[in-house]
Each structure stands twice: as C-alpha cells, then as structure tokens.
Design a protein that fits this description.
This protein is α/β, with parallel strands linked by helices. The chain has a single domain, classed as SGNH hydrolase (Rossmann fold), CATH 3.40.50.1110. It has seven helices and six strands; from the N terminus they run ββαβαβααβαβαα. A six-stranded mixed sheet has the order 1-3-2-4-5-6, with helices on both faces.
Length: about 200
C-alpha cells in the first residue's frame, strides 16, 4: 500500500482507493499512475485531501472486501473509490460473488460515513457477448444502491481493440504510462462531483 498525499495538513480529509493492478501502478514508474495524477490534481486545485492508495496487483473483490474493515479503521476516509472486479473475471469467479462482495464493500464504506465511487470494468470480447453484458451489469446493479456513484468503464478512453499497443503494456491488459492521464480524465468528473 502506498500513501500519496495531495495536500499536507492535520485537517485534510482522506480519499481511499481500493483497487487492483490498474490502480497500483503495475509496470509503471512510481508516480506515473492515475492515482498519483489524481493526488497532484487535487493538490493543484487546492483540495485538502490526502489520497491513500491501498490498491494491490491481483486483488479480487473478495480480497478487497476482507481488507476493507481494517482500512476503514486505520484511515477513516471521507471518500472511497472502489476499482475491483477485473481479476474476478480473469479467474472465472462467479459474478454473483463479485456483486455480493462489491455490495458489502459499499455498505461497509457507507456505514463508516464515506462517499463511494465505483469504477466499472469491462472484459475482452473473447469472453463472449453474454458474459460481457453480465459482467458490466454487475457494476450497474451495485450502483443502484443509494448514494453510489459509478463510472461504467474506467478504461473507456483507451480501450480501442484496433490499437491496443498505443495505450497498453505488451500484455495488452495493463495500461501504460501514456494511458494514465486519459484514465484520470475519464474518472475525474465523477470524483469532482463527489467532492461537491
């Protein structure tokens, strides 16, 4: 886990990001990821918010769910961004479990009086049209819980199947450094709205 402080100060609110490799700077130099760019933008705009990146490469929704209570206790965040689910699909885990885990995380966050933003993901076309629809629907369903904001597909700006080399690392799964500012631009409007 890495802490990125957007603006020092004892009175700073905390924003907790609980995600997987997409948010954990997998394959990137430290400070290049979208979370680090978010912290810098918050600082530049004068928001007294401390960004805590608790993302772990390979994390599933079950892992995030099990870690969340301790994270809530340790950091007492005012805002929580949940970016999980992709590894559930890669491992073929039941979508019912993914939904239940995300709902439990949302409920725990809200019980701790945190605002919640859910970052949705999509699976590659080779998973099949029905599975792709069902997977995307998980995020839509969880976002129906009261007070949950949703970015339906956080990689929307970079996921061009015809040009994956431009914004993805050689594995064609993890975004490269050039993609990170575009990811931030995709999620920023929802974050900005959450701060209002």
């Amino acid at each position: 886990m890495r802490q990125v402080q957007a603006q020092p100060g004892a009175g700073a609110a905390r924003m907790l990001i609980v995600g997987d490799s997409i948010s954990a700077e997998y394959g990137l130099a430290r400070g290049q990821g979208w979370v680090a760019l978010l912290a810098e933008r918050l600082r530049q705009q004068g928001h007294a918010i401390e960004v805590i990146n608790a993302s772990i490469s390979g994390e599933t929704t079950a892992g995030g769910r099990s870690r969340l209570p301790a994270l809530l206790k340790a950091h007492q965040p005012a805002y929580i961004i949940i970016e999980l689910g992709g590894n559930d699909a890669l491992r073929g885990l039941p979508l019912t479990s993914t939904r239940e885990n995300l709902e439990a995380m949302v409920e725990a966050a809200q019980a701790a009086s945190a605002h919640v933003l859910l970052l949705g993901m999509q699976v590659p076309p080779n998973y099949g049209a029905q599975y792709s629809r069902d997977f995307a629907q998980v995020f839509e369903d969880v976002a129906q819980l009261p007070g949950v904001a949703l970015v339906p597909f956080m990689l929307e700006a970079i996921a061009d199947p015809a040009d994956l080399q431009r914004y993805f690392q050689p594995d064609r799964i993890h975004p490269n450094a050039s993609a990170q500012p575009l990811i931030l631009e995709t999620v920023w409007p929802a974050i900005e709205a959450m701060l209002q």
